[in-house]
Design brief:
The complex is a heterodimer of chains A (1245) and B (496). Helix content of chain A is 16%, strand content 41%. The radius of gyration of chain A is 35 Å and the shape is elongated. In chain B, helix 2 (46-56) runs antiparallel to helix 4, helix 14 packs antiparallel against helix 15 (396-408) and helix 15 packs antiparallel against helix 16. The chains are: A alpha+beta (1245), B mainly alpha (496).
Amino acid sequence: MNLNVQRKLLLCLWQNFIPARKFTPKFSLIMKLTTVLLIVASLQISAKTFSQKITLTVKNSSLNAVLQEIRKQSGYKLVYNTDLLKQAKPVSLSVHDASLNETLDKAMSNQPFQFEIEGETILINPLFPLEKSVKLNTVEKIVVITGKVVDENGLPLPGATVTEKGTKNYAMTDNNGNFTIKVAKEGSVLVFSFMGYIAKEVSATITMKVSLKPNEQSLNDVVVTGYQQIKKGSFTGSVSRVKAADINVASMGTLDKMLQGQVAGVAIETSSAVFGTAPKIRVRGSASLSGVNEPLWVLDGVPLEAPLRIAPSELYSGGARNLLASALSGVNPEDIEDITVLKDATATAMYGTRAVNGVIVITTKRAKKSMPLVINYSTNATVTLKPSINDFDVLNSKEQTVLNEEIFRTYQNALMSFSAETSGAYSKLTYLRNIKAVTDDQFRNEVLNLKTINTDWFDYLYKNSFLQQHSLSASYGGENVYGRLSFSYYDDLGKTLGENVGRYTIGLSTGIQLSKKLSAEILFKSSHRDQNNPGTLVNPFIYARDASRNMKPYAADGSYEYYKRGYTDFNIIKEIDNNYINLANDDILAQLDLKYKVTDNFRISGLFNARVAKSQVDEVYTENSNYANQFRQMGTVDANGLSLSLNDRNKRLYKDPSLPLTYPTVSVLPTGGILDRETSNSKFFTSRIQAEWSPLVNKNGHSVTIMGGAEAYSNKQKSYFSRGYGYSTVDGSINPSPLAIQRLIQGTNLPFDEQRIPVDRSLLATKIDYNAPFDGRNLLAGRIDYNLPYTRNTVSYYTNGSYNYNEKYIFDFSLRNDAANITLSRFTPTWAVGVAWNLSKESFMAKADNVISEIKIRASYGLRGNDGARGPALVAYDGNITRVYPQYNSSGVNISEPENSSLEFEKEHIINGGLDFTLFKKADISFNVYRRNNFGLIGERQVAPSLGYATKVFNWANMRNQGVELSINVRPVQLAKDLTFNVVVNAAYNKNTVLSDLTGSKPNIYKISDSRGFALEGGPLTGLYSFKFAGLSSDGLAQYYDKDGKVVRGFLSTNTEIGNLEYQGSREPKYTGGFTPVFRYKAMSLSAAFIFNAGHVVRLADFYRGGSITSLYRDDQNSPGDFAYRWTAPGDERYTIIPKLITDLDVDHYTADGFTGQTIYNAYNNNDTRTVKASYLRFRNINFQYNFGKLAQRLKMKNLSAGIEASNIAIWASDKLKGQDPESLLNGLNTPPVKSFTFSLNASF
Amino acid sequence: MKNTSLNNNSTLLKTALLLFICTAPFVSCKKFLEAPIDDRSPLTTIGDLEKTLITLQPYADHLFTDMMTDDYSYKDIAGHVVRDANEKIRPIFTFAITKQSVDKIEMLSSGFNPNTAFLRYYFRINNANLLIERANKIKNDGGDVVRANNVIGQSLAIKAYCNFMLISLFGKQYDSATAGTDLAVPYIGEYNSNAIVNRPRATVDFMYKQVEADWLQALTLIDDNNTVTNAKFYFGKRAIYGLLSKLYLNKKDWANSIKYADLVLAVNKVPLNLRALRTRAGNDSEAYSKYYFDPVNAPYILMSNNTYQLIGYFWSGYYPYPLMQFYGSPDRGSFGDFANDEMIMTSILFSDKIPVKYLYFYSAANRNFNLPLVTIDETIFNRAEATIQNENGISAAIKADLNLMIDNLSLTTAGTNRLKGQVNAASTKDAAITTLLNLKRYRFFCEGVRWFDLKRYNLPITHNYNGVDYIIDGKDPEAYVIKLPLEEIQFNPDSK
């Protein structure tokens, strides 16, 4: 039956909602899978042995007992109505080796029942058939019950369900909460239920009023740690719990991004809105300098990791691998019941050396025992809006063209030898004039035209897009078997050109009561994702923001307008068509939980979880892409003979080093494109065995629970990357170019994008992160492909003991010991202790109960670890030795890091104090204060060079995080008749301080002034340090104060005097939080989410892009609006802080003073006037819901509601940011969120 | 009721069994916690160790010393010169590094400086110790003794070479009277997996003894038939003979120096024939450069290795004018004078001079050039020098050797004859040594040889920079000692 319903529904879906183009093949796949799953599920139930012979002697025994014994002996399944069986008469019988039929005949001889055997099931029915009885009920019901269902404040609950217990007879309340139901007799039991409220059973009276309590209380009754479910009353840790339904924002796709601003102490920065990328999440601050700072995700009791291991250093780099960075991208948000954030030592104790960054436990929805079949369908459709260039402060066409002209005049000398690697509108015209393709007059006219173009690139590269999601689930609960099956489909047509995502998920959870004592739960989850994105080198957002507005995408005749990039023709729209990423990801998870109740006080449980994730990420550069064409752009092809020495300059061309100098460069890719393919295969296994014993259960008030267990975890990953030169999109094959391989092997001067160093590209110049799994190796040196295997095996054992006296005084301790292969099987113990005092249980508090109730004071202290970093073993890899005489190339083993036998996990002592209470039974308030002392942080430290290394990796740095958290949940307050209001507010303050001097390697001040912040002793991990601007000189050049307050023109690149810089604040917010007000009026509700981050600073985007003057020559890029206010004539220095266009002569003067290259520009880029307060308040979304109670009733539906939502509505931040999003880290493929509107529908049957 | 409990027990058993099956593969297997993390090399097999040897071969890191010799002068005329670079290089030039410890930040970041050399030599020494330990373990565990011994021998050779270069740069010239008390550099005798081990400076005498012992032991262990390490990029026995000859020359143990040079030259005595190379290269300067350092020059190169370093200082305001002056116009080569033939201008605008022999590496935009560490040519000179010292004068045989070297230079007949005349006219020991050192200056200019000759003989050096003379007057052997890098002094308290 289930299946039929689903079939019908899916068919309907297929016909009405989903574009058939995509769904058809997948549809049949899902159906097949469903069938298989259902068969598998039903097999679980009947996997027993059958015996036809029954021996039984009873006297005056209850029919129930007899039937149970028959069931046990026969192995048949028994289906009957418990209420019905109450009418049974005592049974006396004696059979020996009798058949099942015979035995049943005897047992039922004088009962008002009949039995039927169907397959291996015994059905016990009343003497008339069940179908008739239902009909009878509906026809013969004579008692009409009317009533009203209200909440605890007396407000009506529209759409609540009223069911006559034990029957299929039900009714629903109307908009005023009124209902009418016909029942067999007065006194029949009615079950009242409503989503989010605790169901209630009441005997029927002719008129009745029933009030339901919201189940927020019940939700908070239990704390789910992933290992245990602990009664909140006897828990001493600090946790926050939110319901998934409350935070769901349809347009965000994955849960991790939705959590922003919802939990006190959890700071989330959405670094990119691209599906699959991970937001930056910090639970109570950062704990590591170089290792993992992200919290651990736990799904239904088992840690959930990203499908691909991504090093901390590459997490926000915008590389193609980042599409797989979010652990939650395969989880349908509709399947999630609630989220628990574990924050302190006690709460996270069971996660030992992975606990330091906090743990976020996700529980998925389950069916319950004895529940009717509920089919739920929900869908939503989102339209997104295009951003506009007017939101950003950049020069318009006119200003830009004027600036271009001035730059070309000012830098004539430099531009003469500046390679025309890129060109924009102005340089294109100049070139045409130079080759006499246009006359001087035409040139002047064209330049005039440029001033009016004003292209808004967002208009071309973004689209008003459509996103739809469909979720369908069916839940059913029998006495012994219950289950939930869900499907979902997510289809995002993309906000920008070249972007789209399709995701399918299937989830099945089955609970089986195998016997009175043994129960099992089987979980199965699977997801498939297809995603397309523009290539990592053509980010539409960055292009739209940065491209000069005097360029245009199309020529007058509608053809593409080309400019130069990499010496060859480039058009962004064409390039997005020809440089794209295709991702396919499959994720399958199966989990078995077994619980065995030996006695009421002693339970054993086991868990086995296996997950396989496979992905393929292809970055394609077609044969027509600008990128591929760069490889064949020779200087000589220019008919006008103006190619100069292009052949030598174009780094994509190749000169065989084994040939003499005089040999010309050649193309290694005369035809075809390039395919970068990364395939990965990850396997995760977790198995756990655990026992829980309660030796004392409220014995004279004393209760003791002891839990212990052991766990093994394994994660094996293989990823393989290959770069195929000569890729053909026609047949998908690679026609390999031997020269391309030779170039990779012998070329020592390859552009960065052809090296495979997986760290943030913008940091390449200064930093190679040693913690990257590839140790900063250029993995493509000497090869076109590589394997990156990774294995992490851990074994742990753990124990927890908890004592309480009358749930008044609670004491709790935990111990855990972890060993991993990365630490050479060395065990690392971690522990936690917690105490709590439930003040409200004290008699003296009883009087104050109406004012202040449920008061609990908590404290915990513990040690936890962070095992993300490398172990003590030597790090040495095979690599290629390339030589100037290529015939002597060989392979060798490179030792990159020494053994350090004392290296351990990073650790932390965390102390937490907490106070929870309820005020006037209206507001639940939770307050936490904590201090985290992070020690043994792994970092590189300078050592004596006689040890063979300039730096070594040590446990040596210390850091401190301290803060407070406040969350207030105001329960619904009646503002007027039928109008209620409730709000959840949370706020947190965290102060991070680095306690060790990390400057052992004497970083220069330019490194310290990094826009991402720098860790100096006494400051935060991401402290922003700036040069002190001292105004412009009379010749329009920037000046700074040095450490003595003297005005200087710059600082040497070797300068290490920190006093020359000024600390301006932390890059990470100190204050985080959000609030979610909800108004309810009758069947309507209106909710909103506001998020704030405050107390931090951010630096404006570089004034001199890339820290060099040459970026100014790039007339394909626009210029910051600041350029309009630049110094142009003596005297201007009194009014502006924007320097003049620096001339060659100025550069000479700078050089004469020792200020060279980047120092001139970076000092200005990083001066204190470019720092802006980054505090902001984001109006993230507003949501209106309407519940169609009456309609649903008419349609015999359990529930029907619809809603509309607007997201990313507004952000209030400093004006000085000028459109720069204070959150997003924009590079690679990252893009910020855009405004969107969502319509949603939810129906239950 | 019995039935029920039995049922329960069997369920319990089933559960237990299932859990055991789930958990057993992980916890029962000790290997589970010893699984390799990734594809890193555990350095446990003899093959791994052999592959590591190649990455531990030393570079020509001593090349920076050329800038302190009398071959170079500095002219602050190049407008395009990176000023920072000048400031970083100047301390070397002004001999600051022989007066005080200098921070690496004060050095040209791209390499060639004493701090980089110091670090690279110690990287090799520490990891050579690691290889020795691992190879011994393999040997003790019943592994291939010949191959393990070869790894140990190779590692000893690397370690000894690095130690020898360290004493030559950072230690006083060996003087038997004071070597027992003259402090050189920290000696790293064994592998230690601790992150920090402080070690005191060892004496020059101690270091020399260790180097000598290591090389001698290496000779007994190295397997010249090993197909991996018998290439020109490894120290073979013959290369070690050459090094020993050099070691004893420094110790003034003339007999042993001659003995080991003889062992090298007994196989063959074919130095690099620059004259023939010139003819072969025709007008192609780059080809000449390429042939010059080609490992295929089997007779000449005993051991060479790619040195990964930008050879930046050649165009950073350092001009080999004194060297060109020394050559002088009478010694015109077959293709013109020295200035145009052995040195070329790479930029007319700024008068950059670059030795033709480095042109190939320069034009390949490559930070990578193959420099020999041990050569037959140098061994011939070493033997000649030891013999002159030993015999207190110059013999006919040595004159023949030196004339052979002159014949191999690419000079005009007049130039050749003038040099040969000097050789033949050298009647005293001192005159013979002076002539020999001059010949070496002709033969090895810009190859990092000159500084050590100046140091051995306490020859004076004078430089002028911005009107100030920087002088080593040749009276104090300490004046040639480069002080330990500042980082070493700061982070290894025992090295003070």
